[in-house]
Amino acid sequence: MVALSDRPLAGNCLPVDGLAAAPHFERAVGAHAQDAVFADHQRAHRPDNADSHYSRNAFVGVTVPTDSPGYLQGWQTWFCNQCVSARQLVTTHTTMIKDPSHTIMSLVEDDSDGFNYNNQGWVIDIRPPAGTPPPPGTPNPAGWSSTGGWEGWIDWPAFWDPSNITYSNVDGSTEAYSLQKPGLVAMIQGPPGAGAGHRFPQPADDLSQGRWRRDWMHFRDRLFPGVLPPMLPQYQP
Question: Residue 11: which of 148, 95, 136, 121 has the closest Cα?
């Protein structure tokens, strides 16, 4: 872990392709830890042995999510309902990150939209899908879940090794996650041409157990904890 300072974070609308990142890519914190994540994926996980691709968290190093006003406008009602102001979404310096040890900095991604690089920051729809019960402490329980238009997995992490999806946090630490939902990879990526692709509104894992989507929730609660009200109580600020 490294000490945080009030250093600038670059915007995330940059093509970040493996270790060959643009020279102005600002690794303000956790450079050694991020290198470990990059090297781990470069060694083993991509089956075609091509360069691995990495993305910056769309909530880090920006003035609005993924530096795109469309996300701020599209989610404005939910932000207002949950008392999240536009000023709180500005993260151009490391000290603006409320919970750096639980905020994703970068993660592996395999964008299949025709580009040979990841052309924007990594983002999923942070609004809880319809019917999701609000956790204790939610600022506005009545306005907690999305009433329509939930886009779920706008992006998704690379699925080269679903049991070992690694990412770095803003404080320089790293984590690994194993997908919990059987068949999620096939739902999104399919066999070629059959997956849902971007903006996949994933159904609940098991409706008999509730309207939970454990994998989406794992990444959602690590995009901007301390500002975005969490899905799970342990991430309450």
Answer: 121
Please name every residue paired with 90 in a beta bridge, in sequence order, or none if there are none: none
Please state, in angstroms and rounded to a whole number, the distance separating the CA atoms of residues 229 and 237: 8
Cα–Cα nearest to 53, from 138, 151, 134, 157: 157
Name the residue range of residue 153's domain.
31-235
SS3 225: strand
Residue 24 lies in a domain: no
Counted domains in the chain: 1
Q: Tell me the per-residue pLDDT of 108-129, one tens digit each, with 9 for 90 and over.
A: 987 665 555 556 789 999 999 9
Determine, yes or no, domain membership for 21: no
pTM over cut 0.90: no
Q: Torsion angle, CA of 57/60/65/66, rounded to 10 degrees?
A: -60
Cβ of 181: how many Cβ atoms within 10 Å?
Answer: 18
